[in-house]
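Researcher: Next entry in the queue.
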Amino acid sequence: MDINAARERVDQLVELLNYHSRLYYVENRNEISDYEYDMLQRELKELEEEFPQLIRPDSPTRRVGGEAASGFEKVTHTVQMGSIQDVFSFEELEQFVNNVRQTVDSPKFVVEPKIDGLSVSLEYHDGVFAIGSTRGDGFVGENVTANLKTVRAIPLSISDKLPLLEVRGEIYMPREVFEELVKRQEEEDVQPFKNPRNAAAGSLRQKDSRITAERSLSIFCFNIQRIEGREITSHKQSLDYIKSLGFPTVPGYTLAESFEDIKRRIEEIGEKRFSLPYDIDGVVIKVDSLAQREILGSTAKTPRWAAAYKFPPEEKQTKLLDIELNVGRTGVITPVAVFEPVFLAGTSVSRATLHNQDFMILKNVAIGDIITVRKAGDIIPEVVCVSEKRSDGFFRLPDVCPVCGTKVVKSEEEAAVRCPNMSCPAQIFRSVVHFASKGAMDIDGLGPAVADALLDSGMITTVADLYELTPEKLMRLDNFKDKSAQNLYNAIMQSKNNSLDRLVFGLGIRNIGQASAKLLCARFKSMDGIMSASQEEIAAIEGFGEVMAKSVVGELKEPHMTALIERLKALGVNMLYEGETVDDRFSGMTFVLTGTLPDMKREEAKALIEKYGGKASGSVSKKTSYVLAGEAAGSKLDKARQLGIPIISQEEFLEMIGESR
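Model: Structure for this entry, 661 residues:
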């Protein structure tokens, strides 16, 4: 295909894919199957790889996330991203409405749900998404354009090619996504996000946009900050307009004239609040006419033309019936409150974590007390306080593990109490479940029930024992037949070939999640490299710190962990990290780096070579494909010339992968 035909096809594919993406992520419907969409995207990716000069800024292939950024640049907002005054009662709201009526004639109000998320600005130049930034302090925010491009509900281009359009929206994490994220964090013994808003904020500010992409964030847009090339006279008109351009707008916005209409609409939204797939924490009421807004003006902090009615948190009292003690895979003993069921935020709840001993002392909570409970972020049940004391003192955690009876220990560095016995049945069970989980070794068919059965039968006592199972042994388990036993055996054997980062994550090192396991493996390339690395070397990895480095070094040096890794190695489990391959254009090629490159570190160049399927070597030979040379190149360059090995510059290397600097 020639360049002109390719350009025409790329344009067709980008428009087509963006259209279907909008249908799916914004309008919740589809006209083609997922397979058909994937095939169109694959065709586009192949064309972009063949003709990198044709890659458009609004190509859907740009959404996957890129390399880690070193930080976020500051963005000064031309139009202040201000806040709105809060009101907490209908009396206060009625006063706001009356104040508006005293200043302007016959005002109309737009009533819209208040999404509980993170406010951002989306700036479009000539119809193309150019800059995305956080609210910050309202005057200066952070440039998070790369991360916002991973949010599939945000259009990368719009049909109306205005010179400038700046839209304000609220990034949020859907409840279902949040619940899954919290579940993973708890499994990893990572402090979970308290609510979807915090999770959205933490996900959007990731230095590696690939992590943001994995978090499935979404957005609702609620305001035009700036616009050139079109006249807008009212707020509702602006919402209707950006909705027509493909922006997901705040759902259920309506016009109201009287306070009674506003109050009725707030009550309607409140009734549906807990059935929504996202969090709202109130309702925003805004004067519709932009001309009237100018007359009303603003105070030093907030506009006089808007107010946010905040829903009071739903809290209920109930009796604390019991406190269960759960032992996690790292030995942490977590107290869990079991109480008489209450209906909260749309569901019946009867359990909530009590976190640790310090929390129970602070709340002065014990079995038999009447407690007040609510849902944090309307999702996660939590104990607010003791509303009626019916016991003496507070509940004390036992001095021994409730499962194995080993004396517990408490670190000065954390509030948690731990069982130090690595052979504790509860820890082993949770370790096996974690090891086999999707984010770790991904052993299909090995869930909690099967793990429990394997441990009860005595077939396994550690995760290494999994690799000595046979179909015949598995058939001894209840409900296992020929096919199910063979399928599980195949899944276990297949996991031997997993990337090293999956194994590192699966080992359950404290404070090391999926993303940090990848960073660790990318730096040291092998299990031996990781185990021999110093705490200082590990702490120097961007995204790491002293606590994480100490966890890695400390736990990998524990005798039981060293023995486990050696046994896994002997059983054929992969111990090398080959990185992620984007495509195989450098497959079979060997590169040698020498000298100082203009603005690229040697580690970065090596990572790019491996990313595209090549290999980086330290010495020049007849098998060397290219020598990538910079300033002050030495004997390697001389040897390459003697052998007739092609010598390339950084610029030529970047051209080979379709990048520029």
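Model: The longest helix spans residues 3-25.
Researcher: Noted, moving on.
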